[in-house]
Design goal:
The chain is of the alpha/beta class and 221 residues long. It is 29% helix and 24% strand. The protein contains six helices and eight strands. It is globular, with a radius of gyration of 20 Å.
Amino acid sequence: MKRFRAVLLALFWLGLGTLLGFGIQFLPGPIKLGEDSALLISSSAAQTVQVTLEPGNIILAQPAQPSGTVFVFYPGGLVAPQAYEFMARALASQGITVAIPAVPLELAVLSPNRANDVKRLLESKKLTVSKFVVGGHSLGGAMAAQYAAGNAVDGLVLMGAYPAGNSNLSSKRFPVLNLAAQFDGVAEGAKVRDGLNRLPAGTQVTLLEGGVHSFFGRYGP
């Protein structure tokens, strides 16, 4: 009996160790800025943009002359927030302040109200906000839509995304931009089209010819 218990105990610890090891490899790594985006906009524009990692793991791209428009971007599922740094830099070079908050386990569904943390960050920095726009890629887009459905925003941008069935924004009056990749492969065309029924009637849909799902960020094939 003692030997049997010893074997069971050994198997338990072996299984636990394997499970922990398997889980650890999927934990998000540290956020590293500036690894990819520096060459994607002109050097003159780059000099006007300041990109920092703020408390709470929020990437903040600030233009030298902010327009007052803030864009909060929710990353796609299992995609590191810095994969969208190139976009943040490009928008910031046009005067738009961009915030990309990291989310637990890189799954925005676990923290759909992260935009509120961005609001608090902006308040602490005493930044002027005239327009507060949210958006996201894939799962992040769905969570941005969910946030927009229940909170005051001035616009919504969806990239390879559509609102979940429980997010009805059809009565909202703010502008919505829906960017769809021609060869998305992840966000099914039928679901994207169905999602339009839950968006305002004036939603602008733009098809990116030749695009695939991962082209909205800088990751994967």
